[in-house]
Each structure stands twice: as C-alpha cells, then as structure tokens.
Amino acid sequence: MRNIGIMAHIDAGKTTTSERILFYTGKSHRIGEVDDGQAIMDWMEQEQERGITIQSASTTTYWNKHQINIIDTPGHVDFTAEVERSLRVLDGAVAIFDAVRGVEPQTETVWRQASKYNVPCIGYVNKMDRLGADFFYVLDDIKNKLKINTIALQIPIGKENSFEGVIDLINMVEIHFELDGEKVITTPIRQHHTEAANKWRETMIDTLSGFSDSITEKYLTGEELDAAHIRKEIREAVIKRKILPVFTGASRRNIGVQPLIDAIVDYLPAPNETHPTIGHRLKKDETEDISIPCDPNGQPLGLVFKIQNDREAGSLCYIRMYSGVLKSGQTVYNVGKKKRERALRILRMHSNKSDAIDNLSAGDIGVIIGMKFAQTGDTIGCEGWPVLLENLQFPEPVISISIESKTISDQDKLKDVLSLLSKEDPTFTIRENDETGQLIISGMGELHLDVLVTRILKEYKLGAKVGNPQVTYRESISKVNEHTENFSKIIAGKENAAKLTLKVEPAGRGMGNKYIFAAASSGKSELPSEILEAIERGINGSLASGIVMGYPCIDITVTVTSIQYSELTGSEFAYEACASIAFDEACRDAGPILLEPIMEIDLSSPHEFVGEVMSLVTQRGGHILNMNAKADEDVIKAKAPMEKMFGFMTSLRSVSQGRATFSLEFSHFEKKSER
What we know:
By secondary structure, the chain is of the alpha+beta class. It has 5 domains: 2-273, Rossmann fold (3-Layer(aba) Sandwich), CATH 3.40.50.300; 277-389, Elongation Factor Tu (Ef-tu), domain 3, CATH 2.40.30; 399-472, Alpha-Beta Plaits (2-Layer Sandwich); 475-590, Ribosomal Protein S5, domain 2, CATH 3.30.230.10; 595-671, Alpha-Beta Plaits, CATH 3.30.70. The chain is 27% helix and 34% strand. It is built from 15 helices and 38 strands. It has an 8-stranded antiparallel β-sheet, with helices on one face. Strands 2-3-1-4-5-11-6 form a 7-stranded mixed β-sheet, sandwiched between helices. Strands 25, 26, 27, 28 and 29 form a 5-stranded antiparallel β-sheet that branches. The longest helix has 19 residues, at 191-209. The protein starts with a strand and ends with a strand.
C-alpha cells in the first residue's frame, strides 16, 4: 500500500498528472482535462469553472499488485490548510515542478509542510514540452532553494516542441510513448544520446555513493551495479529524506507518467516502513509519549484529517488509520471529546463517488459516515487505550468580510450553513459583532472568501449581502504592568468575593500567549482545582476579546502573582470575573498597541515591466526584499501590509499588460504604522 499526495505550486500540473495516473492504472476510462472543466479530481462546480483545485480529493487505484491511495491537493496559497491536513496523514508525496518556472513560491511552502511532517518525496519536472523548458536548470533550482540533494533518474530526450521521451539512467534505455501514452516502448539509447546518458548516470552513481557504502564499495572495485540494488539503495535514502529522485515528462502530452507510477511503488514507503507515529497517552494528571507501530492487530487508532458535508449522508469524516482495524457499524470513541460515536458505514472514496467497504485497516485511508461530534484533528480510538494523535495547527485568518441574509427568515439558515462550512474548513472562522449584530467571516485571502461566498449563494442557494473585505487585526501590549483586583458581588443573598494580583508583559513577536500561575494562596485554605481553572478561563476569555478595539490579543505573558481565597465567599464565578477584570485593567495601562498582518509577496514579471511593478509595491507601503532574474522573467520577493493589498491584482495587470502574476502569504503581525 502507498498513501501519497501530489503537491506543487498552482498551475504546475497536479490535477493533470493525477488524471493520467487514474487513466493508466485503469481507474478511469477517459482522461479528464482541467482546461475543459472535465477533470475527475476537480469535481466541485467552482473547481471546474475556475480551473483550480480548491478541496483535496481522495481516490484509490491499483498498479502492479499495489494499492495506491492518492490525495490531489490545491496549489493556491489561500487553501494551504487543505495541503497541511493532507500531508499530515500521508506516507509519501510527489512534488511537481514546472519545467519553465522551476521552484515557485507555493512549492517552497508545501515543501516546508512536508519537512514538518517528515514526508519522503520524489520529484517530477512537468511541462517539458513548453517553450523555455529546461530540466537541468530546475534540478539546480531545487537543490539551491529547497536545500535537498537531487538525483536525476531520468533525463529528457529533447525539449520544447522536440520533446519526445526520456532516458532511464538505471536501466540505460530510451522510453517513448505512443497511442496517447498508452503504449510504452523501450529502445536502446541512440548513439547521439550516449554521451549525455553516460555523464548523468555517472553523476547519479556518484550522488548515491554519498549515502550508500555498498554502492561506493562496488563502484570502487569496478563491479557491475545491477538495477535492483540501485533501486533498493535509492529507496532507503528517500525514506530517510536524504535525497530527492527526479523524473520528467509532459503530462498533458501523456509522456512520462507510467515511469512515475513505477517510482511511486519503487521508492515511496508503505505505511509500516515510515517512522512510527508518536501518540500522547492520557494518564490521570499527565500525558506520556508513545510510538504507535502500524499494526492491524493493535488497538484501533485513527486521525480525522478532513470533514466534508454531504447533503444526503451528512458529515463525511476522512480518516487515516494508524493502528488496528475499524469495522462498519462499530462503536468508536472520540478521545479528545470523550464521546462515543458509531461508524455506521465505511466508504472508499473516488473523488466525489464512493464504494462501501467492510473495514478499514492500519495504514489505510477511508471515509466514515455517522459520526456527529468529530472535527478535523480529532483522534478516534477506544476507551481502554486513550491516546491522542496531535491536533493539526492552522495559520491565522487575515481577511474578513461581513455577511448577512437578505431576509430575516433566512438568518438562522445562513448561520447553519456557515457553521457547516467552518466545520469543513478550520481556517474559516465566524464571529458575531456585538455592536452591529453583523456576522463577520474570516479566511486566508480574497479568493478563499470569494469561493466560500459563492458556495453559499450557489451550492446552498441562499441570498446573502456581502460587505467589502476588511483586515483582521490583533492587539498586544508594549510595557510591563501589575494590577491587583478586588471583586465582590452579592447574588441571591450570598456574597461572591475574589482578590488576585496579576502581571502582564509583552512576549517576543510570534511567541504567542503564555499563562503562568505563580501564586500561593494567602488564605488558610488550599486552592481547589475548580478555582484555578476559573482563573485561567477568565484570562483566556479576555485574551480572545481584546483590550481596546475588541481584536484577539497575541504575544502577551500573563502571570498570576498572588491570590486571596476564602472557602465561604470564594466561587468559580467570582474568580473568573475577577481574573477577566484584572487582565483588562492591567493591559489598559501597559501601552496597548494594534498589530496588522504583514504579507509576503512573490511577484513574477517580464523584464520590461519590472520597474513599474516594483514601484507599485513601494507605493503600497511594501519593502522589496530581493530580486532574482530568470531567463524570461524577474522574480521579486517583498513584504507589505495586508490593508494596502486589496485590489492589487487590478493595478498589477494594468502596469504589466496582464503579464505579471503574484501570490500572497501571511508572514507575521507588526505594529500598525500611522500612514
């Protein structure tokens, strides 16, 4: 079995390659084209209209007696959470690179995510038939930008219009593709290609010998290196993430896909060959880290990595099993929520279609129907063995819009739809503005919110009025301050009193909020745990509701330094309220500041427009970080406030005759400057 993902920058050919894999493995009987809106993996109406992948689609196919579970992920930076949660549950990935553009900004982002989850990868340089394609430039670009040792296992025969096939450097043969790529023909290497083939095979063996003693030994003694031994050593180095074997082709022209499927089976690990997953076993007052081997005979344990709402079936919970077996109709235990649920049916997905299966075994990926409480990141297991797989962490939403229903009768319906969408997508948040009563929705970018609003209007057929985009700010403090609060209130004839002192201090930018309890009770009684929890609740509630402007607080360290407690008057309510008031008062005198999101901008512009493009960025308060010149364009990296980036696309098109492109990614929060 292989659990693989296909990842890359937008428009590098992920879905096109996925469609070919499905066709050649016999899963589909036609090749769906993204450009015609016919791709099987892009099943959402909006994906077909926009020609981009929005939701990661999952499917299962078979090749040479191996089961391959494939997840096709989005390339657009606004849907980075889809990629993140897919990579968390994969054992291997295919990184696709554009033969003209090389390593693009979103490629670097997904590569960082793959490194974070230790996912072994193979590389595929696509679009070798395009004008300006250069396989060897892309090899160097990968090595320099992604800091990984590349090893070419194929080299292209020709390029651009003359691209006709590949040379396999392990078996030293030419591979050609006929009849829409269905017929794969191997021939001996022609004389005018032998010099290049020998040179690159020498480079391949030389690179591999740096990771394999047995290859070095055989090479130095002049022994013949057989193909099976080379593959075995490459596989070991790939699983340890030491090297990135690179293949090439042109998926749209059906060249190079079958050797890529062979490589998935040959070099990417099976679920039981990867590092055992680390789980956190819950004990009375602590958690213990344990490793979980991929064993079908073990206790059942799985991770919900995606929720999708289906009109008829309800919540579809995509789950990766790490241990044991889950059977259809079985009662399961949601470890984090401490609730029992029933797995009514188990499905094997093929994009938006499905087949029912009896069970899901360790290492496999499937969909459970019938779970009511499950959310993205939940662990499904059994009560006798409460183990948590870590929660998925997602970036902060940076852009908000107001939304309201056109009629009062649709108001509750709109709230229900929004809560369904936020359950599906953890980077989409909803809050109600206390002063105006408006619903404010937040997301990762203009495209992200545009897609969600279009789904509300078209998919759920709800009339809604949408406001202009607004920036999501944060609040923090700039000074250290200490405050003592004395709270007393009589409720139903009983006195509720609390007294505590807390200190607030600014943490470094990006360090997050920190709560420290460093107080001993000055009363005679010991502090009950309920009181401690109430204080923490009060502070966390205040951090979420802001200081002056009502935006969430970040990068503040809160320390409770002393507390006075009496059994007679001390109640949970009193301490929660006291902590909340103390925090607000302390922060108001600690130099509160407003922070704005700063975005990282990656721009690609033809040489002749680069001056106007850079000028446009600086006009919007941006700072140019660096510029790299490529063969046919300049690549500019810059940073600018999110507030100034609305409508940037229109301005960029007008100064570059529509030929420059850009992508935005959240970088950090910074004190809002007076502009």
